[in-house]
Amino acid sequence: MNFKKRSFIFVTFFVSCLAISLLAAALGTEHWVSAECVREGEFKDKSSGTINFGLFKGSRLLNFGLGERHYPMNMQDILYKERTFLQYELYIATISMVVAGILFGVLSALLAIVNTAYNPIEAICHIPGLYVTNGLGVVCSLAGVVTWMVQFYIKLSASVVIREDRVDGRWSSEGMAVFGYSFWLVVLATACLVLNIVIIALTTADPKARKKTHHLVSLPGKQAGDTMLY
Q1: What's the pTM?
Q2: 50 by DSSP, 3-state: which?
């Protein structure tokens, strides 16, 4: 590859790093879902609250009418005590897919450096490897997006309130939950990895070779055969 192509391949390194950062931020932040909540019955007008949580931690800000109070949330503890709070298989799948997306993002970044420095002989380390790592990164990140969307629509859109608050405090969040910014970070990371594939495709495309092939195919039978023989 010439210097121009190597430069474009090196750009994918920075895009991969951005995707890794977005996925890591999504994994560690606490806003995969956000919701307002109210107390049912006669307390509705005097109470207000917000709930947000990520894959590992979250928080509840509840005002019973005497001032806002903060309650931390540990998702592992909640899922241990309340098995039906989330669809556990989808929850684990989301975490696994985001982690896998980070892994393939790291591999794509390393391969971008390798292909910028020299031309490796092995296909898996050359352009095909870039396609594979970025493609698998897209698949895993997109799978994380899909699993959380399914989680949201079958569980979280109905309620993000834990049993303790739901039963004792009569809190409800039905119809008030939305996707938080942590979720959208994964969507952006997926777009970054798709951008990498587009950059690689445009960089490695050879219009002259395609034009030559098209010209040979369009030649009459004998002439084309003579040309190929030559």
Answers
A1: 0.85
A2: strand
